């Protein structure tokens, strides 16, 4: 929290909003968390090290779901600190990338494909309506 180093999540977000406000002081900014994805979701209990190596050993030792919760929590805390509205798609999107039937219908057609990026049907049904309502709530 409070970091200004643009190599950190907090610092990069701060640099981004400062840049936007410098370009347009009247800009309306909101924060949208990512939805769950195949490898990183609330049911993933493996350690982050199972996804690859990290410079920060503390990250490597976290369970995947602990890391995801901290990531989303940081985005929410950042939004609160800077009085920005937040839409939490991680907990509230309705996406289920851990469910094979859902993957078949709303990702890319088979269980062994990309479970990070929902297909256009999922975007229309699950994501776009939430983002539209979110924007309307503060615009």
Structural summary, described in words:
- This protein has 139 residues and is mainly alpha-helical.
- It contains 6 helices and 2 strands; from the N terminus they run H-E-H-H-E-H-H-H.
- It has helices at 9-23, 57-61, 64-81, 89-92, 100-106, 120-138; strands spanning 31-32, 86-87.
- A two-stranded parallel sheet has the order 1-2.
- The two termini are 27 Å apart.
Brief overview:
This protein is an all-alpha fold.
Q: Structural class, from secondary structure content?
A: mainly alpha
Strand order of the largest sheet: 1-2
Mean pLDDT: 89
Shape: flat
Rg, rounded, reads 17 Å
Features:
mainly alpha; 49% helix; 6 helices; 139 residues; 2 strands
Secondary structure elements and their pairing?
Blueprint: H1 9-23, E1 31-32, H2 57-61, H3 64-81, E2 86-87, H4 89-92, H5 100-106, H6 120-138
Parallel strand pairs: 1-2
């Amino acid at each position: 929290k409070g970091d200004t180093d643009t190599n950190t999540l907090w610092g990069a977000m701060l640099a981004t909003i400062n840049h936007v406000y410098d370009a347009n002081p009247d800009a309306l900014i909101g924060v949208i968390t990512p939805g769950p994805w195949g490898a990183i979701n609330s049911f993933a209990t493996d350690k982050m090290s199972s996804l690859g190596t990290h410079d920060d050993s503390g990250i490597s030792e976290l369970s995947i779901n602990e890391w995801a919760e901290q990531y989303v929590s940081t985005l929410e805390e950042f939004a609160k600190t800077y009085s920005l509205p937040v839409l939490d798609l991680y907990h509230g999107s309705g996406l289920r990338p851990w469910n094979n039937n859902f993957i078949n219908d709303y990702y890319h057609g088979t269980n062994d494909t990309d479970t990070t990026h929902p297909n256009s049907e999922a975007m229309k049904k699950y994501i776009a309506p939430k983002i539209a309502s979110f924007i309307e709530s503060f615009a």
